[in-house]
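Re-run with default settings, no changes from the original entry. Doing this only to confirm the output is reproducible before filing.
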Amino acid sequence: MTGSHARRGLRAAALAALGALSGLHGAGAQELPPPAAIPVLTIGEALRAALQRNPDLLNGQDALLSTRVAERGVLAGYLPQAVPFFQLDRSRDTGVRTETYGVTASEQFPFGTRLEAAASVNRNPGDFPDNPYVSDYRLTLTQPLLGGADPAVTREPLRQARRSTSGQERAVEVLKRRSVIAIYSAYFGLARQEDALRFESERVERARRLTEFSRARFSSGSLSRLDVLRAEQQEALAIVTRNDAENLVEDFRDALRRAAGLAPELKFSIVAPSELPEAAVEIDPATAAAEIADRRPEAREARDAVVDAEFAVRIAKSLELPSLDGVMTYEGISTSASAGDALRPRNAALLFGLRSRYGLNSTLLHAQRREAEIALATRKRNYQLYVDDLVREVRRAYRRLDALRRNWEIAVQNMRAAQLQVEVAQLRFEKGLSDNFNVVDAETLYNSARLYELDSRFNILLARLDCLFSAGRLDVLPFLQQP
C-alpha cells in the first residue's frame, strides 16, 4: 500500500514536470527583452558608426584624399611657373663684384602650346666700366605640328590624375555599400544567434525536465533504463549545443564591433529590425539587368578603363609621327650705365623657325602603338564579359531571393507541424502509450525546424540587400537615416 502511494506520488510529480515541459513551447514564442543595464545599439547607430570609424572605409577615404591632392599637383603643372634668381660673384684677383638677377617663367597649355620667357640683368663693371649693366629678354612660343600635336598627348597627365580621383570616388562608394551589407550581416547574424541561443536554452530546460520525468517513471517501474539513458543523452547534447551557441553569440558580437569600428570591450544589446528601410524598394530583375552597366560603380569604372585604352592608342599614334615643332622667339638685349636704362629693350628681333627630330629606328614607337591597340581590344572584350557577369549576378540574386521566400513559407508550416508532433508525442508519453523515443525525436525535429525558420527569415532580408547591391540600387542614405 505504501509502495502504491509512493508510485502515485512519483507519477504525479512526473506529470507536473511534463506539464511544465509542455508550457515551455508557448513561452518560447515570446521574445526576451534585452537587459536594461546594457545600452541598445540600433542598426542605424551601427551604420553611422561604420561610416565614421570602419577601418576599411577610412583607408579608402584616405586613398581618395591622396588622389585629390595628387590631382591638384598635376593641375599646378599647367599653371604659369615663375622662378626668380640672383647670383653674386667676386673675383679674387681684382675684387670686382659681378651681379646677375632676373626671372624665368613658363606655361604649358593643355592644347600643346608651350610658352617660355626669361629676363635677366647682369652687372659686370670689370669688363664694361662705361656700360656695366646688360639686360637680356627672351620670349619663346613652341607648338607641335606633327608628332605630339594631338592635344590628348599634352593633357594626358591631367586626364590620368582626374581618372584616378574618379576611380577612387567609385571605390569609396562601393566600400560604403559593402559596409551597409557588412553591418546588416553582422547585426542580423548576432540577432539570429541570440534567438538560437534562446531556443537552445529552452531545449536544455525541456530536456532536463524530460530526464527528471523519465527517471521518475523508471523509479515507478513503468519505463526502462534505456529511456532514461536516451533522455540523459539528449540533455547532454542540448547543453553542448547551447555552449556552442553562446560562443557564436560572442563571435558575431565581435564581428559587429569590428565592422562598426567600435571598441573591443564595448557592451551592448541589439533590437533587430523586421524590415529594410521603406526607400529600399526592389525592382523587376529584367529592369535591373538592363540598367546594370550604368548603376554599378564597378561597371562604370570598367567602361572608363576602355576609354583609357582608347586614349593610349590615340597618343601612341600621335607620337609615332615625325616630330615637327613651330618655334617663334622674341629677343631683346640692351646695355647701359644704369640698371633702369638697361631695362629698356633695344635691338629687338622676332624669329620664326621649324624644329624636327626623328630617330631612324621607329620600331619602338610602332611596337607601343600595336601594344596599345591590343590592350584596347582586350579591355573591350573584358568589359562586355564583366557586364554579362554582372547581369548573371543580378539574376542569381533575385532567384535566390525568390527561393528563400518560398522556403520560408515551407519552414513556417514545417515548424507548426513539428510543434504539433512534439505535443502529440508528449501526450502519448504522458499516458504511457509509448516510451520517450518519440519525444526525443520530435524535440530534435522541432528544434531544427525552429532554427530553419529563423535562418530563412533573416536570410530573406540579407538576400534583399544583395539584390539591391547587385542591381546598383543600394542607396546608403535611407539606411543611415534609420533610428
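The beta strands are 40-41, 81-90, 97-108, 114-123, 133-144, 269-270, 323-336, 349-357. The first helix runs from residue 2 to 27.
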